[in-house]
């Protein structure tokens, strides 16, 4: 069975996450305003600049977000005191053995968060998301699971990016440039979805769901192009907030862990022949999370599995093919 951090560490993580979410609405310049688009409700910070009314996107409507607005109206400690309190929680987590980030990756994540990338729908996927389930699920990772990748993958829905009518500030391309990232060549001249750091092997990739043909799409809210991929819509639906224990904490969002696990089964089979090493890593991450979720959140895991299987024969076939290589994981899912 997966090992867990102490209950103190788990409580500290959720205290940090709650503090970061409260901080995200602490700098409202105007009045929270609801906007309905295509049957969905979004909240904006509406404020005047001269005679012009501007809207700054906050997030999609939820009970949790409305609760944050209510707490924001209450008396709050000074900003410096709040930052120090979060930094103490980060130190406690590091003492308890939580994974950290190297200074280069941590500062990049903080800069992207400060520009609004995650507020505007960006979702961390890939190994960086897997590492962040440590706090959500209170899991203690071993050395192989804790290995950090140089690649940072960020996914977002194209339609959400179009609907928000807000944009990252400073622009994402400027943030990446400040960290010595430059566009990597692509098959479409003048467009790219991958940014490579000039010193080292670090790579930032932007992704978006494909609904049919795959290719490059624009993400206006982030000001970048993204590679459209099938099956990604399933992964990043209903993402959750996550806290990175770096400095005074960084707020990002990641896929739901049960969706991440099932998606890895699909991805592993899809690229099995093209990249066996990555396929093995996909299956290892899926197996680890499924073992934890089967005990801690079996209903969520079952719902995610049934959702994926209901999306068509190709989805079912890829899940079945992956599980044929993972008999213990298949047994756990069969018992749900």
Automatic annotation (TrEMBL):
Domain DUF6788, first and last residues per copy: 14-66
Nucleotidyltransferase-like domain mapped to chain residues: 105-308
Region forming the signal peptide: none
InterPro entries xrefs: DUF6788, NTP_transf_8, NTP_transf_8_dom
Classification via Pfam families: DUF6788, NTP_transf_8
Name the UniProt record assigns to this protein: Nucleotidyltransferase
Organism whose genome encodes this protein: Paracoccus methylarcula
């Amino acid at each position: 069975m997966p090992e867990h951090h102490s209950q103190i560490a788990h409580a500290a993580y959720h205290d940090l996450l709650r503090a970061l979410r409260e901080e995200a609405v602490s700098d409202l310049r105007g009045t929270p305003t609801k906007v309905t688009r295509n049957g969905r409700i979004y909240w904006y910070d509406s404020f005047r600049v001269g005679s012009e009314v501007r809207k700054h996107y906050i997030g999609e409507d939820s009970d949790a977000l409305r609760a944050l607005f209510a707490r924001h109206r209450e008396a709050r400690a000074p900003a410096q005191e709040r930052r120090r309190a979060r930094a103490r929680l980060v130190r406690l987590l590091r003492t308890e053995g939580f994974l950290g980030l190297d200074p280069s990756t941590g500062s990049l994540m903080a800069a992207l968060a400060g520009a609004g990338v995650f507020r505007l729908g960006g979702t961390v996927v890939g190994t960086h998301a897997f590492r962040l389930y440590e706090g959500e699920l209170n899991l203690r990772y071993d050395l192989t699971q804790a290995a950090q990748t140089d690649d940072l993958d960020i996914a977002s829905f194209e339609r959400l990016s179009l609907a928000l009518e807000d944009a990252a500030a400073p622009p994402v391309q400027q943030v990446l440039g400040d960290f010595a990232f430059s566009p990597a060549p692509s098959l479409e001249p003048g467009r790219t979805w991958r940014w490579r750091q000039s010193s080292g092997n670090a790579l930032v990739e932007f992704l978006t769901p494909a609904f049919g043909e795959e290719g490059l799409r624009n993400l206006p809210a982030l000001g970048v192009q993204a590679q459209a991929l099938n099956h990604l819509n399933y992964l990043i639906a209903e993402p959750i907030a996550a806290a990175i224990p770096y400095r005074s904490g960084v707020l990002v969002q990641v896929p739901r862990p049960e969706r991440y696990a099932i998606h890895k089964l699909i991805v592993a089979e899809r690229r099995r022949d093209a990249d066996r090493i990555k396929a093995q890593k996909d299956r290892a991450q899926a197996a680890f999370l499924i073992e934890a979720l089967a005990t801690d959140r079996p209903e969520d895991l079952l719902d995610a599995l049934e959702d994926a299987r209901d999306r068509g024969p190709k989805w079912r076939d890829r899940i079945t093919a992956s599980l044929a290589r993972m008999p213990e994981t298949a047994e756990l899912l069969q018992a749900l």
